[in-house]
Amino acid sequence: MKRLILPLITTVLVLGNCSTENPTFPWVQGGFNDALTKAKADNDKLVMVEFSTDWCSWCKRLDAQTWPDPQVIDVARQHLIPIEVDAEKSDGIELAKKYRIGGYPTMVFLNAEGEEVDRIPGYLPAEDMVGELTRIVNGIDTYPTLKARLEENPNDPGLLIQFAHKVENMSGLEGAISYWDKVLDLAEADGDQRALSQFKIAQYKVEQSASPSALGDYISQYPESPYIPEAYNNLSRYYRRAGDGDGEAQVLQEYVTFMEQNGTVSTQLYNGYAWRMAELERNLEDALAKSEIAIELLPETADPESRAQVMDTHAEVLWKLGRSEEAVKVIDQCIALQPEDEYYTKQKMKFQTTENSKPAKS
Hints:
By secondary structure, the protein is an alpha+beta fold. It is built from 17 helices and four strands. Among the domains are: 9-140, Glutaredoxin (3-Layer(aba) Sandwich); 265-362, Alpha Horseshoe (Serine Threonine Protein Phosphatase 5, Tetratricopeptide repeat), CATH 1.25.40.10.
């Protein structure tokens, strides 16, 4: 059935309603099968399944900030059958496996047959959620519409890549790898499109072989690829999951060097590197130098919270190097910037009362 584009006048009517009651998000009670039945009976509406957990802070933020929004509520009431599923309880465990849920929250949109149409991974503020819900209920760039367009234009590399991303988002890289392979067969594909496909293929090889060599080879063979930073990030995650601190530290150090050579340094880059080295207790002298640069790169307009977070990294590295007195002096500045944040007070107590006896690893 063709879905009508949501008129902007709808929002005006909702906001102008004279009712004194605050609207609430129309969660449907009952189980998953009941929701599918209701969707079929109600003009084939889409079912929106929000997969969440008790401990998910971003799920709580959705509950507090996004779902109560009148415009979000209006779209859901008119076009969706929304249900909440705890992915770690009862039937939610199997449903999360069935729909390959990898993080929370994840909103999965299904037709009345239980077939996935699209998904929204992660938190969105109300304005962005309205846009995404509107797109999905109108069938814009959803799985079925992209698939139909690709069948009509099988040699369009941009469309093929868009569909591959959609399949990967829904089914993982394994489900999408055949489409990434096809991009390389298209004469119409440009250099960036081929570089992206090569990166995805290398990423898939790493997943299948439990060896990082394919990503390492990609970095060596395609040094000008715009996906090199993402390749480094994938490599570091590989070593992190494997519990190989030396391998992760080396990759992160190479990544920072690459970014420096390309002139794309930032406070975030150096601060993230320094903090992770403190956690790994590797390259601490280098981490200290990078944390100092991170502070120097902070703009004068940086808010006290951001400044304190970067300085805290510097203090942590100092402490890991056994320079506790210096760490205390830096954390005192953090406390002055954020006097109500107990975290920094606890950091100071740690620096004062705990001797870091582990040797620094280079």
